[in-house]
Amino acid sequence: MLRGSKVGLRARHQDDIPVLRAELHDDVANHARVQAVPWRPITPDAEAAPFKVDDTEEGHIPFSVVELDGGTLIGAATLWGIDDHNRLAHIGLSLLPSARGKGYGTDVVAVLCHYGFVVRGLRRMSIETLADNAAMLRAAERNGFVREGVLRSSAWVMGEFLDEVLLGLLVHEWKADRP
Ligand SMILES: CC(C)(COP(=O)(O)OP(=O)(O)OC[C@H]1O[C@@H](n2cnc3c(N)ncnc32)[C@H](O)[C@@H]1OP(=O)(O)O)[C@@H](O)C(=O)NCCC(=O)NCCS
């Protein structure tokens, strides 16, 4: 398990999946804000069912997020789009509603950066988020991410086009920020 100051990132367990599906996938409004594909109901044993893990998929590493204190499941996090040639990857995370606003998201970003930069030897991490996602923007910036641009009207979210913000962090910037 990878450890931050408040959260642990561990492998997805079978009994995490129904909880993540009920609290994240089945929340249509949240799904629309987080995923680039339209929501649809998906049968639990379908090949591409949400939160199901394919351990052979090299470029996409899914984690379950747990509280360090007690091990309660609090969300899902992913290092995705891992590109070993250009040595970059993207961060994605979604916390269960009851776990939001407690500093866990900021800590998840920190742990994913450690995984990307130290364990995987990457050079760049990216985050794309909706321009109105204040908590995600803040969690990224607290970890040293820099706003690199706005993708205007790039996301169709429940009946309207919204802007997205692209943020990036390079390994030397991340190291410079370490105590
Ligand atoms: C976005 C998300 C991961 C952030 O994690 P979190 O644990 O809620 O955020 P944190 O508690 O670490 O807060 C980060 C910062 O944002 C602020 N913040 C938290 N919730 C906020 C809100 N609703 N509005 C404005 N600011 C907020 C916090 O005060 C904190 O700022 P600070 O460091 O200056 O004190 C989480 O809210 C979530 O899973 N949301 C739903 C899914 C989602 O949007 N995922 C991201 C897709 S890119």
TrEMBL record:
Stored InterPro entries: Acyl_CoA_acyltransferase, GNAT_dom, Ribosomal_N-acetyltransferase
SUPFAM superfamilies linked to this entry: Acyl-CoA N-acyltransferases (Nat)
CDD domains reported for this sequence: NAT_SF
Residue span(s) of domain N-acetyltransferase: 18-163
Gene3D superfamilies listed in its UniProt record: 3.40.630.30
Descriptive protein name: GNAT family N-acetyltransferase
UniProt source species: Streptomyces cinnabarinus
